[in-house]
Specification:
two-stranded antiparallel ribbon, binds (2R)-3-hydroxy-2-(alpha-D-mannopyranosyloxy)propanoic acid
């Protein structure tokens, strides 16, 4: 069982140079501008709803400004929790103009969806336990205990749902049914699989006739983000087609798997799950609660099962096809996520750190690229297919600290802060030039920059 090396309970001295405080003020302003009262939108325009892992990262930053508001951010996520424990990746804004988004998902087709609230029908990375734990570190002992007691049932139900629904064979690894569930929307292992196995005939027809260009004119994201930074129109259409297949099965995992739809044991997701399980154990211990023995057993199995994803020839971990157990050998940011999981050996961690040190792989000027720059899939502008993101950097920094790579953690903290200081609070960044890309004034960039500033060792 792994234990997370505590960073002096995060109460590390704060640097108070002018540049630092400027950055902190800007971050706080962005968070307040995106604040909707009980939750924070990722950014204005493109992202008008509440997203699961966004709110978790946002709470990790907000805890430094206002721990009560950080608690509200996470409590508001539990409104969307399904009766079976599932935490949806999106809770929809109730304003009339977003009727189309709610209707696209129609969460009400599944009786487990919450009453009177529209959500999506799929989940996102399980960072909730981490966020609850981090917020708890900013509370007094009695407040922390009440906070943990309040959130513990939600985390347990969510993790139990993941095991019950998404690990039907009791293998230890949970499966995902849509690339949006990874949070890394166009990450190569998924786009490659979709392209090779799941491109419906009508989408192939559009490609052959170039009609996708016409369809592209109607894309909402093009109002906000230049073409070339997000999914191609064909990819977007195939993501929508995959979503519609799930909706037709009322987001019921058994029906989805019975029909042999897309399912992958995703490496990054399972790494974050291992870490979340460790946080869950810590939270339960803090309130002297005995976790259900079956859950404890399955949590242990996930750590062991992660090792089945190790490829001794490539010296890397990979995602795996759920049905065939074929390893999906496409390097991506997931390659480094076992550092965050914390359950791998120090020797394996050192192998991953070497990749981070290599400027031709994961170590360009503004690391960490979401696809290594020596991969044929690398595209420095395209979303999760090359740009550097502050949330994945934050998790890698946590992982480095956990394995005692303190200098690497400090260096990555500095380059991440510089990237944002020099370019602004963008959604993602060109890993070589540092240019800001995607949505501007992006909430988790602001929140995690605040956290990096506050927890940075001077
Ligand atoms: C992106 O995902 C949404 C779909 O859920 C999108 O592409 O419009 C991803 O970056 C995801 O990880 C993130 O949670 C979401 C909101 O920031 O945007």
């Amino acid at each position: 069982m792994s234990e997370i090396k505590s960073d002096a309970s995060n109460e590390v001295a704060v640097e108070t140079t002018e540049a630092t405080s400027d950055l902190a003020v800007q971050a706080a302003t962005i968070l307040s501008e995106n604040d909707q009262g009980e939750y924070t939108i990722p950014s204005k325009g493109l992202y008008p709803h509440q997203w699961l892992w966004d709110s978790c990262f946002i709470a990790i930053g907000l805890r430094h400004l206002d721990p009560n508001r950080a608690q509200t951010e996470l409590v508001s996520l539990t409104r969307g929790q399904w009766h079976n424990g599932m935490m949806p990746n999106m809770i929809f804004n109730t304003a009339p103009e977003y009727h189309h988004d709610r209707n696209f998902w129609r969460s009400w087709v599944n009786p487990q969806s919450p009453d009177g609230l529209a959500t999506s029908g799929i989940t996102q990375p399980p960072v909730l336990a981490e966020a609850v734990w981090q917020v708890g570190q900013k509370l007094s002992s009695p407040e922390r205990r009440s906070w943990y007691k309040l959130m513990l049932p939600h985390i347990i139900e969510y993790h139990q749902w993941l095991y019950h629904d998404r690990d039907p064979h009791g293998e230890g690894l949970v499966l995902l049914v849509h690339p949006w569930e990874t949070g890394l929307d166009n990450t190569p292992p998924w786009t490659t699989e979709l392209q090779d196995h799941l491109m419906p005939t009508w989408i192939r027809f559009l490609r052959a006739t170039n009609l996708d260009r016409v369809v592209g004119l109607f894309r909402r994201d093009r109002h906000y983000i230049p073409p070339g930074q997000r999914l191609s129109t064909l990819e977007t259409l195939s993501y929508f087609a995959a979503q519609r297949r799930l909706r037709r099965k009322a987001y019921d995992t058994i029906k989805i798997l019975d029909h042999g739809l897309f399912s992958i044991e995703d490496l990054s997701y399972n790494c974050m799950f291992v870490r979340a399980n460790t946080r869950l154990r810590e939270i339960a211990k803090a309130v002297r609660y005995d976790l259900p023995p079956e859950l404890v057993e399955r949590m242990q199995k996930t750590e062991t099962a992660l090792e089945q994803l190790w490829d001794p020839y490539a010296q890397k971990y990979w995602s795996r096809d759920f049905v065939t157990h074929r390893l999906l050998k496409q390097p991506s940011i997931a390659t480094l996520m076992p550092l965050y999981a914390g359950s791998i050996t120090k020797e394996r961690a050192a192998v991953l750190v070497k990749l981070l040190e290599n400027e031709h792989v994961f170590g360009p000027n503004f690391p960490v690229p979401t696809v290594p720059i020596d991969s044929p899939m690398f595209d420095p502008h395209k979303y999760w297919q090359g740009p550097s993101w502050v949330n994945t950097n934050w998790m890698i920094i946590e992982g480095l600290k956990q394995y005692g790579f303190d200098e690497h953690a400090a260096a990555l903290t500095d380059t991440t802060l510089d990237m944002v200081r020099e370019n602004g609070f963008w959604e993602y960044f060109h890993p070589i030039s540092g240019e800001g890309l995607g949505a501007h004034n992006f909430s988790w960039t602001a929140a995690l920059i605040l956290d990096l500033l506050k927890t940075k060792k001077t």
